[in-house]
Design goal:
A six-stranded mixed β-sheet has the order 5-6-7-3-8-9, with helices on both faces. Strands 2-1-4 form a three-stranded antiparallel β-sheet, covered by helices on one side. The protein is built from 20 helices and nine strands. The two termini are 42 Å apart. The chain has 572 residues and is an alpha/beta fold. Helix content is 60%, strand content 11%. Helix 8 packs antiparallel against helix 10.
């Protein structure tokens, strides 16, 4: 686990502290220049109008023009700095966020966060008016102090208005925090259900589930909208209070200033200047309240990013080990699973023990729910055994660099889902600069070359297009080509012929034989006998436990003898 000081988010923020300090300094200059208007008003009323001096007016106005030009320039620079900080966060954390998002998919459950969306929320907040308002907040007491210097009574009235706005800001935090959190949670559930519905569209339509799915989806969506509306309504109410207070305060100070000016306690210029200064003191608070919901969302996204990017999946990368040869050592491994609701721990694999050398082919057989898929996932490094040792060329998978070892591993999962991209990109695992010869060789090895040529665009067919709809068998055979791309040292196939016809079965058998000749270690989880035609060893599982392991003929003889049936279907 990463230490807090090593958290990628903390590191990027630390690198941005200089830019944030610069923004704070520009905020100082901006707020000082904000005094230009009140001071100009004061001079015009108290000096120019009484002296009727045109040169004085021209000089003062020229000075005001210059000061406002500086004000505009500094405000532009501050905005650019803050937007660049958001851009830096997105760029420097984008890659690691994408990697972590992919790794989080190994949990097989619904996503609990969207790091790229969180980055977008933070970046947009950095470029909005919300953060500059927070920078301007510390200047509120300074403006109030200046109003006090003009007259104590004016200062007291301005302070009373500021107290109302501050109280409204605190209330805004208290009453919007929970609805915003609930809105974010239901928004995430809405997105997860949306993606799940899209992936399962065929089953939903075929079984008349569209109405039920739509109604349930509407329930989720309405909860997200209701909480968002609740938070928005409360923010809008508080914002209306602060705006009303600010506008009322401006008129109240103007009225009090007029009263004091009538008794010559202040000048007319002071009356106008104090009204502007008091309004300026309340403006950052008003802006902060208006952007409070966005501020809460940005804070939540920042905290979620810190938590997500502190996970083990982004820990320090191990050193590069020599290229593997394809030896697998499994020593009494066990895999446990904990029920999240009850907390009970159950065993899905126990006492699995075998060794494979380069060129070996292992068939794993057994009834449904015997642990075959769980073993397949462990063999390719998707999870770690809770007990025992699993080593690939003498090293456990956490000792390998994931990107490097993945090039030497082929995996055909039970449920195949190709990515939006061309057939060639999918086969080549989206490797940049992959040669056409290697891609075609993988397709021919998987026996899918002719099938691909019959597609509308051949190898350039875009699988993300709505016009391209592959059958289960076609998708599985292309996924097989992806698994054997580059002749990996270890190839694990989970029910590789589940959707294949006789031609596909024959191609699969040839592929396994060719891979073994090339020195690859092959592991096939099988229900159908044809899948293990080209293997030399057999492992039988039952209830997550190893029942038999050894040469294929010996294990088959034992299985047939025990079942008193003439073929492998007895073990299904």
């Amino acid at each position: 686990m990463l230490n807090k000081k090593d958290n990628p988010v903390e590191k990027v923020v630390a690198k941005s502290r200089g830019a944030l300090l610069s923004s704070a300094l520009f905020s100082c200059a901006i707020n000082i220049l904000m005094l230009t208007g009140p001071l100009f008003m004061l001079q015009v009323y108290d000096r120019v109008l009484t002296s009727r001096s045109v040169p004085t007016l021209i000089t003062l106005f020229a000075l005001v023009v210059a000061l406002y030009l500086f004000f505009g320039f500094f405000d532009f620079i501050r905005s650019r700095i803050l937007s660049r900080i958001g851009f830096r966060l997105d760029v420097e954390l984008g890659t690691i966020a994408k990697r972590n998002w992919i790794f989080s998919g190994l949990g097989k459950g619904q996503a609990t966060s969207r790091p790229l969306r969180d980055l977008t929320v933070i970046r947009q907040f950095m470029g909005s008016n919300g953060l500059p308002a927070l920078f301007d907040l510390p200047w509120m007491p300074i403006y109030l102090a200046i109003v006090y210097l003009l007259h104590v009574k004016l200062g007291l009235l301005a302070t009373a208005g500021a107290a109302v706005v501050v109280a409204a800001t605190v209330v805004s935090e208290l009453i919007t925090k929970k609805p915003v959190m609930e809105s974010s949670r239901w928004d995430l559930s809405d997105q997860n259900f949306s993606e799940s519905s899209n992936r399962n569209a065929e089953a939903i339509v075929a079984m008349g589930m569209v109405g039920n799915i739509s109604r349930y989806w509407e329930t989720i969506r309405h909860k997200a909208l209701a909480n968002s509306q609740l938070a928005g309504g409360r923010t809008e109410a508080i914002s209306a209070i602060t705006k009303t207070t600010r506008m009322l305060m401006q008129s109240a100070i103007l009225a009090l200033g007029a009263y004091l000016a009538m008794f010559q306690e202040i000048t007319p210029g002071t009356m106008i200047a104090s009204s502007i200064l008091a309004t300026r003191a309340l403006t950052p608070l008003d802006s902060a309240v208006s952007n409070w919901k966005n501020f809460v969302r940005a804070r939540q996204s920042y905290n979620k990013l810190k938590e997500l990017l502190s996970s083990d999946s982004i820990s320090e990368q191990p050193i590069d080990l020599p290229d593997p040869e394809g030896r697998i050592e499994v020593e009494k491994i066990a895999k446990l699973v904990r029920n999240k609701k009850s907390g009970e721990v159950s065993t899905i694999l126990s006492g699995i023990n075998f060794k494979l050398e380069p060129g070996d082919g292992l068939g794993v057989i057994g009834p449904s729910a015997s642990g075959k898929s769980s073993l397949a996932r462990l063999l390719v490094g998707l999870g770690r055994p809770d007990k025992g040792e699993l080593r690939f060329d003498g090293a456990s998978f956490d000792q390998w660099n994931p990107d490097k070892v993945g090039k030497f591993v082929g995996y055909l999962p039970q449920s195949v889902e190709l990515l939006a991209g061309t057939v060639a990109q999918n086969i080549a695992r989206f490797e940049p600069g992959a040669s056409d010869e290697t891609i075609v060789a993988a397709a021919k090895l998987a026996g899918v070359h002719e099938l691909i040529l019959k597609l509308p665009g051949g190898y350039s067919t875009n699988l993300g297009s709505e016009d391209v709809l592959l059958s289960g068998g076609q998708a599985q055979r292309i996924a097989l080509a992806r698994a054997v791309y580059g002749i990996p040292k270890l190839v694990v196939m989970d029910e590789p012929n589940a959707h294949l016809d006789m031609e596909g079965d024959a191609a699969l058998t040839r592929a396994i034989a060719e891979l073994r000749k090339a020195g690859s270690c092959i592991v096939v989880m099988a229900h159908r006998p044809s899948a293990i035609a080209a293997v030399n060893k057999l492992l039988m599982l039952k209830d997550g436990k190893q029942v038999e392991f050894g040469p294929k003929d010996e294990v088959l003889a034992k299985v047939i003898k025990q079942s008193k049936k003439p073929d492998l279907r007895a073990v299904e």
